[in-house]
Design goal:
This protein is α+β, with helices and mostly antiparallel strands. The N and C termini lie far apart (about 75 Å). Helix 7 crosses helix 8, helix 7 (about 285-300) runs antiparallel to helix 10 (about 370-390) and helix 10 (about 370-390) packs parallel to helix 12 (about 430-445). The relative contact order is 0.08. It has helices at about 135-140, 155-160, 160-165, 210-225, 240-255, 270-275, 285-300, 305-310, 330-335, 370-390, 425-430, 430-445; strands at about 1-5, 10-15, 20-25, 30-40, 45-50, 55, 55-65, 70-75, 80, 90, 105-110, 130-135, 170-175, 180, 195-200, 225-230, 260, 280-285, 320, 395-400, 470-475, 490-495, 505-510, 515-520, 530-535, 540-545, 550-555, 560-565. A hairpin with a 2-residue loop joins strand 8 and strand 9. The strands form six sheets. It has a seven-stranded parallel sheet with strand order 18-17-16-13-12-20-19. Strands 4, 5, 8, 9, 10 and 11 form a six-stranded antiparallel sheet that branches. A six-stranded antiparallel sheet has the order 21-22-23-28-25-26.
Length: about 575
């Protein structure tokens, strides 16, 4: 090998044949050496002082080397430093095994980027057509009940793709999959905090090659029509330049369909105008939908006006997700089973995790054998899925909610790398009726375009029959029930869209009160009748039961019903 003229950009490494350029930011006044290791060895074979600099960037290039034979680090200010732009790490392929960087036990890998994508490209599914599913790559299949061969890995997710496709999912959202440090006082199971963001986590790869297996997972998902979104929370001290370069890298190198970002950290304006990222799905968490729907679900007063807003709201930048539950907080089963958090096992005296969950235990804290309690919980679970999947925005289901996964009241399982934090797939056998209900509800949503319009409904009339695209009702038709005490709402969706074509008329009656209520149904055009096609009380969907009284509908307590005008 011999030194040749290097370049300051791009930061990190740049490989061209047997020519490798190294570039790293170094604090002013510090000396820097490039350390080269034979692949798999923990003692440097070569050291090169990096003296060429522009600003705080040091750089050099080597010619005549086979990148696959080497790994690298830097020695900066007397300390071994892993390249923050490293595209892969050696020595991190075993989950939970502590490694000492100063002993050269972690090293950057020189990747050549060659991979057969077989013509794959990001799917670019229309935003309004998405039904998303949030998962943790390790926790998704680590439990013995998952039934997959390569548990807790990218390959394990691939083994579950037939299940996700059958459920009706067309986008998965993965918690951090880059090289974070899981070892410490508490296990960092979720992966938040400082990390090597460019390097896929090798411990999530059955083969130890995180780069290849993440690409395999993305390619397999795309073949099934499923997008892949990566959560990239970054830390507050991460440079804006690194964030943008990292997102571009995953778009170009891994064909990632989108990113879930922290808008208080990421440079959102720059990302939205970036020529590569501007057509990528950029998503953020927003607790508005979650808080409003949870409070409405449990019967809080004064929620109707906010429910109306969130049932039809679509972000102008199409970045907000609708979620009833997420990784931070209760699972859906726990949301209807616990009034308070139970995080004692986390070792922080139950002081961690959110205090305000807007949950309701339906009459008993935790597991219960009382029939009245268990039946009410089942009905509230179905109500929650109706609120989520009948809203106009983009729904995202927390993995396992569709079969009643529980964390035993823990609403902050960030350190629970065990069955508490993993999905227990035996829920599919214990609660098959819930899974089937969710599957049918997703199919129902897709069948009826009135629940997933491309643009937000406005309340304007677009058809000759004079009916607004969306209108709101109560026990009296065309009268919005905005009284503080009201816990019921009727929503009428006109089946005719802005083009004059569309779907059946649909009327959804939400009764979150503990009393039965009668809803006056809007009059239909001549020749059409109202049919009851779904009810959370019965847990059935898409039947066609004509109403005896075409003017009124009785809706039982804590029940949501759907009526179709045909």
């Amino acid at each position: 090998m011999r030194e040749v003229q290097g370049q300051p950009l791009p930061l990190g490494i740049n490989i061209s044949g047997d020519h490798v350029n190294f570039s790293v930011a170094v604090p002013e006044g510090e000396r820097c050496w490039l350390l080269l290791y034979r692949a798999g060895e923990e003692e440097p074979k070569e050291r090169y002082e990096m003296t060429e600099a522009i600003g705080e960037v040091r750089f050099l290039a080597l010619e005549g080397m086979d990148p696959a034979d080497y790994e690298y680090n830097y020695m900066i200010g007397g300390e071994v430093t892993v390249d923050p732009y490293a595209r892969g790490l050696a020595g991190r392929d075993i989950w939970g095994k502590e490694r000492d960087i100063q002993k050269h036990e972690v090293r950057g890998v020189l990747k050549n980027g060659r991979y057969d994508w077989e013509g794959d490209e990001p799917l670019k599914l229309p935003f309004h057509s998405i039904v998303a599913y949030s998962l943790h790559v390790r926790g998704f299949t680590k439990h013995t009940s998952s039934g997959v061969e390569k548990k807790g890995t990218f390959s394990g997710v691939v083994e579950k793709l037939p299940y996700l496709k059958d459920l009706g999912i067309n986008q998965i959202q993965c918690m951090p999959v880059y090289e974070f440090e899981e070892c410490g006082r508490f296990r960092n199971y979720w992966g938040y905090g400082p990390a090597y963001y460019f390097a896929p986590k090798s411990a999530y790869a059955a083969s130890g090659d995180g780069e290849r297996e993440l690409k395999d997972m993305v390619k397999a998902c795309h073949k099934e029509g499923i997008e892949v979104v990566l959560e990239m929370p970054f830390t507050g001290d991460t440079s804006k330049q690194l964030m943008e370069e990292c997102l571009r890298y995953y778009c170009l190198e891994y064909h990632i369909d989108g990113f879930l970002l922290n808008p208080y950290v990421a440079p959102m304006d720059a990302i939205h105008t970036d020529p590569i990222l501007k057509h990528t799905k950029i998503l953020v968490h927003d607790t508005g939908f979650q808080t409003v729907m949870r409070r409405f679900l449990k019967g809080d007063e004064g929620m109707v006006r906010d429910v109306m807003y969130w049932l039809r709201h679509q972000s102008e930048t199409k970045e907000i997700l609708n979620m009833i539950t997420g990784q931070t907080g209760f699972t859906l089963r726990d949301l209807v089973s616990y009034d308070g958090k139970h995080n004692e096992a986390n070792g922080e005296q139950n002081q961690d995790g959110p205090d305000y969950n807007y949950s309701w235990n339906c009459g008993a804290e935790g597991p219960s054998r009382k029939k009245a309690v268990t039946e009410l919980r089942k009905n509230q679970t179905r109500n929650a899925f109706f609120l989520l999947l009948l809203a106009q925005g983009t729904p995202c289901i927390l993995a396992g909610d569709e079969f009643g996964n529980t964390q035993k009241g823990n609403n902050n399982v960030y350190c629970q790398d065990n069955p508490v934090g993993w999905l227990d797939w035996s829920g599919l056998e214990k609660h098959p009726e819930l899974h089937d209900f969710v599957k049918e509800l997703i199919a129902f949503r897709k069948k009826h375009p009135v629940f997933w319009p491309e643009k937000e409904m406005t309340g304007m009339t677009y058809s000759k029959k004079g009916v607004p695209d969306v209108s709101y009702h109560g026990e009296n038709a065309w009268r919005v029930p905005l009284e503080v005490s009201s816990r019921q709402l009727g929503v009428y969706y006109s089946g005719t869209d802005r083009t004059g074509e569309g779907d059946e008329d649909c009327f959804v009656a939400y009764n979150m009160h503990w009393l039965e209520h009668t809803f006056a149904l809007p009059a239909l055009p001549r020749g059409k009748k109202w049919y009851r096609i779904a009810s959370t009380q019965e847990g059935v969907l898409d039947k066609a039961e004509p109403l005896d009284d075409q003017k009124f509908a009785e809706v039982k307590e804590r029940t949501i019903m759907i009526f179709s005008g045909r």
